[in-house]
Amino acid sequence: TFVFSFADGEAEVEEAYMKLDQALPLGLALKAGRFRAPFGKLNPAHPHTYPFLDAPHILEASSGLLPGEESYNEPAVEISELFPGIGTWAPLLSLDIQKGAGFRTSQDTSDQSPNFDGKREKTTPSWLVHLSNSFLVGDHLEGDLGFSVAQGTTNVRQDHSAWLAGTDLKLKFDLAPQSRVTWQSEAIWRQDDEPRTKRMGLVTFADWTVERWNFGSLYEQLTDMETESVLDHSIKAFGGFSLLEETTVVRLAVERRWLGEADPVHTISAQLLFTMGPHKPHQF
Fold first, then answer.
1. pLDDT in tens, 53-87
2. What is the tens place of the pLDDT at every residue in 195-207?
3. Three-state SS for 135?
4. Which of 193, 261, 211 minimizes the C-alpha distance to 233?
5. Alpha-carbon distance 100 to 74, whole Å?
6. How far is CA 193 from CA 42, 162, 163, 228, 274, in A?
7. Fewer CB under 10 Å: which end of the chain, C or N?
8. Is 114's pLDDT higher than 50?
9. 3-class DSSP state of 101
């Protein structure tokens, strides 16, 4: 699988990986290459698949919660296993061993140091464990509960690292053949050795889809856990209309955002999304 992006006159390989389902002993699946890390539910998905415009602020590089400039996207090898569930539960456990370059901070200049042997960087991979549990409740409610833990080195010379933990929950209520309500929440905790910080990010949103329309609202917050101060929070209302099934979508969003103690900033965004490639199967 290859995913390319084109922006500002340049082309970039966003993802490039191979995946073998149940090809290893014990029914293990293997995935290798460069791909969006399975931390939570929002990061593995590309932003154009969200029901709202753009990725939440807590997932952006400016928040510093997840490693990477645009997303938590690392060269990695992943092994996963789908276990027999109890009732309608279907637990999926995955382990990723990553290159770890996204964790490194701008202060880490160890590979340019004359005392650096040039080999230590290869011995500081990061790792990620993700457990998801999809389930059914009756005939009209689908859900998925997940947990994520990751660790990586932020400064090789000083042996500083960062720990990440996350939990996510998604519920989808089927109201009618062409109407559903989706509620999704995700929380991320990050602790860094240097500078020694503890932060938490939270995003929650609800989306109502009826035929080719969707409407919803989103709230997110970034908090310094040591000082208990809110660094950033925002609320957003969004809506969309699918002109041609899911391949051409028009979206509009209105956001009110507070950065620390500063006055709120209001933003109105519009988007025309055109998708090429295979689309989801029709619902009969």
1. 889 999 988 888 999 888 899 999 999 999 988 88
2. 889 999 999 999 9
3. strand
4. 261
5. 7
6. 26, 6, 9, 18, 43
7. C
8. no
9. helix
Q: For residue 225, give the 3-state DSSP assignment.
A: coil
Beta bridge partners of 171: 143, 183
With residue 174 as reference, give the H or E element that holds it: strand 160-176
Strands (E) across 177-226 are located at: 179-192, 197-210, 213-224
Confidence band (pLDDT; 50, 70, 90) for 109?
low
Counted residue by residue, the chain has a size of 284
Tokens of 193: 């050795």
Candidates 199, 205, 214, 213; CA nearest to 234 is 205
Q: 3-state DSSP call for residue 59?
A: helix
- Residue 258's contacts (CB-CB under 8 Å, 6 or more residues apart) are 230, 232, 233, 234, 264, 265
Gap between the Cα atoms of 200 and 222, Å rounded: 6
Q: What is the mean pLDDT of the chain?
A: 88
Half-sphere exposure for 86 (CA within 13 Å, toward CB): 0
Residues 6+ apart with CB under 8 A from 188: 39, 40, 58, 65, 66, 164, 165, 166, 200, 201, 202
